[in-house]
């Protein structure tokens, strides 16, 4: 307010200056004008400098960050992590390696002697400290996880220069169905732009790697035929997440067709287990039940059951390894197609849908705490009422055969959860 009164002292237009204005007063007015103009410009500068931060969230929440990579020591780490330790082993680039599925797949590949290099941007879609803990786990088994974005073409090219990867296991993505309404561009950034960037680098690599990547059961969308079979229609996505995964399947077709890249898409069905994702129901139900907080359980129209074909992580890992083992080589070289290449898509589910109310009952028994249940109508914002995989195709071609039921798998999850969050680690937030 004091400033305003000062500003009021300045004549609004120069024309109002009187020619016979007292000399020293005139000079002090110019000085005042200059001073307050400077303050004003400064305020404008501060305003424009600060406003984009709040009004324009970074799509990946991290994409503007530059990561440091490169140099002889870094290259040595990359090479050593990707080194194959068995005859006819693979060297695999695993994107999303600090993620739930990525961590398990990387560890399993490393265990059997394949070379593995991880890549992850450690974004904060969910608690990054969990990603860091998974990274530490991988480091202990000899897997280096490079911090970087799949949209960084220079980084990807460098990685392929250092290591002639035979395979890419592409698991980096923006996951989650409901978050798409909050941050739609993060889905475009990672699931579409990032995927295209990765394929561009793969098609130019020499040799071209074979690529196995994660699509999703969500591509079945509003499809009502059960169990879901790969031949069913997938042109009615119920969420932007599903739409970007479906787009990925079409983009995969294009790169296979034009450049001879060998591509296998895996439609995962609700994967759960130790080191899982805090944004998924089984995980936050566990957290809230233990806290004594009420949980929301959705029901369909006419009190219809909401059910999921929950698939245990170890079964998914076997499916991923089966897909890598049966992937044929890409046929192109130097960015040119030399012949037809393999293009596949498989359901990886458990073939036994379980109502979400049963999931809660199992958790109550395992945690020895009664849940406060809040029954709510399933909102129409992306979640479908029912998923059920027909896995006969993966069974036939990948030797995929899930063996863990929900009861057994959740027991392992609960044991991990209690150890991780009560064993000195900070509470899940
Ligand atoms: N878990 C499930 O139930 C499920 C179901 C269907 C499909 N999927 C798919 O499986 C894959 C793995 O899922 P998850 O459950 O392990 O998820 P996750 O979020 O735990 O793992 C994904 C990882 O990718 C990283 N990432 C995201 N965008 C990136 C980018 N632009 N550059 C580099 N890294 C990036 C994240 O930091 C994260 O660590 C995803 O493609 C997901 O869409 C998962
Ligand atoms: C599952 O899919 C296969 C084709 O892969 C089909 O022959 C079979 O009938 C399907 N099973 C069911 C129960 O729909």
Describe this structure in words.
The protein is of the alpha/beta class and 429 residues long. Helices cover 44% and strands 13% of the residues. It has a domain at 72-269 and 313-349 and 388-403: 3-Layer(aba) Sandwich (Rossmann fold). The chain is built from 13 helices and 13 strands. The longest helix has 33 residues, at 23-55. The two termini are 43 Å apart. 41% of the residues are buried. The model is unreliable at 1-23 and 50-57 (pLDDT under 50). 2-acetamido-2-deoxy-beta-D-glucopyranose binds at residues 227, 229, 390, 392-393. 2-acetamido-2-deoxy-beta-D-glucopyranose (NAG) binds at residues 227, 229, 390, 392-393.
Our count of helices gives: 13
**Approximate shape:** globular
Helical percentage: 40-55%
CATH class category name of the domain at 72-269 and 313-349 and 388-403: Alpha Beta
Stretches with pLDDT under 50, minimum 5 residues: 1-23, 50-57
Number of strands: 13
The CATH superfamily of the domain at 72-269 and 313-349 and 388-403 is identified as NAD(P)-binding Rossmann-like Domain
Average pLDDT for all residues: 89
Task: Report the sheet with the most strands, covering strand number, pairing sense and barrel closure.
Answer: 7 strands, parallel
Structural category: alpha/beta
Question: Which small molecules are bound?
Answer: nicotinamide-adenine-dinucleotide, 2-acetamido-2-deoxy-beta-D-glucopyranose
Whole-angstrom Rg: 27 Å
Instruction: Give helix and strand order, one letter per element, not per position.
Output: HHHEHEHEHEHEHEEHEEEHEEHEHH
Any idea of the CATH topology of the domain at 72-269 and 313-349 and 388-403? Rossmann fold
Binned strand content: 5-15%
Q: Spatial order of the strands in the main sheet?
A: 3-2-1-4-5-6-11
At CATH's second level, what is the architecture of the domain at 72-269 and 313-349 and 388-403?
A: 3-Layer(aba) Sandwich
Cα separation of the termini? 43 Å
Subcellular location: Golgi apparatus, Golgi stack membrane
Subunit structure: Homodimer.
Catalytic activity: UDP-alpha-D-glucuronate = UDP-alpha-D-galacturonate
Membrane topology: Multi-pass membrane protein
């Amino acid at each position: 307010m004091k400033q305003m009164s000062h500003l009021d002292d300045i004549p609004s237009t120069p024309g109002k200056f009187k020619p016979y204005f007292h000399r020293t007063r005139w000079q002090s007015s110019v000085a005042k004008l200059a001073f307050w103009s400077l303050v004003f410009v400064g305020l404008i500068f501060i305003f424009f400098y600060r406003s984009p931060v709040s009004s324009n969230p970074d799509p990946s929440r991290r994409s503007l960050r530059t990561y440091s990579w490169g140099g002889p020591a870094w290259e040595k780490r990359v090479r050593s992590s990707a080194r194959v330790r068995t005859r006819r082993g693979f060297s695999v680039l695993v994107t999303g390696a600090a993620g739930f599925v990525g961590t398990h797949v990387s560890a399993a590949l490393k265990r059997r002697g394949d070379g593995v290099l991880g890549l992850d941007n450690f974004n904060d879609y969910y608690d990054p400290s969990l990603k860091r803990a998974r990274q530490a786990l991988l480091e202990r088994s000899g897997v280096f996880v490079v911090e970087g974005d799949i949209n960084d073409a220079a980084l990807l090219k460098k990685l392929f220069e250092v290591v002639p990867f035979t395979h890419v296991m592409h698991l980096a993505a923006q996951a989650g169905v409901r978050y798409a309404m909050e941050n739609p561009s993060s889905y475009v950034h990672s699931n579409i732009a990032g995927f295209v960037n990765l394929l561009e680098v793969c098609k130019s690599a020499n040799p071209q790697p074979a690529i196995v990547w994660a699509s999703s059961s969500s591509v079945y969308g509003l499809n009502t035929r059960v169990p879901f079979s790969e031949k069913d229609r997938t042109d009615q996505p119920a969420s932007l997440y599903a739409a970007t995964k479906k787009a990925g399947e079409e983009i995969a077709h294009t790169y296979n067709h034009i450049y001879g890249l060998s591509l296998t898409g895996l439609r995962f069905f609700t994967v759960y287990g130790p080191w899982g994702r805090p944004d998924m129901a089984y995980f936050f139900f566990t957290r809230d039940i233990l806290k004594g907080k009420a949980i929301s359980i959705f029901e369909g129209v006419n009190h219809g059951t909401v059910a999921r074909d929950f698939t245990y992580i170890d079964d998914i890992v076997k499916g991923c390894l089966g897909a890598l083992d049966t992937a044929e080589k890409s046929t192109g070289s130097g960015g040119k197609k030399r012949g037809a290449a393999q293009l596949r898509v498989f359901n990886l589910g458990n073939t036994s849908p379980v109502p979400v109310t049963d999931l809660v009952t199992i958790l109550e028994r395992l945690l020895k705490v009664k849940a406060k249940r809040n029954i709510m109508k399933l909102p129409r914002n992306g979640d479908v009422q029912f998923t059920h995989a027909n896995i006969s195709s993966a069974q036939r071609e990948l030797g995929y055969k899930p063996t863990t039921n929900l009861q057994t798998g959740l027991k392992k999850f609960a044991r991990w959860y209690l150890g991780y969050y009560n064993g000195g680690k900070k509470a899940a937030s």
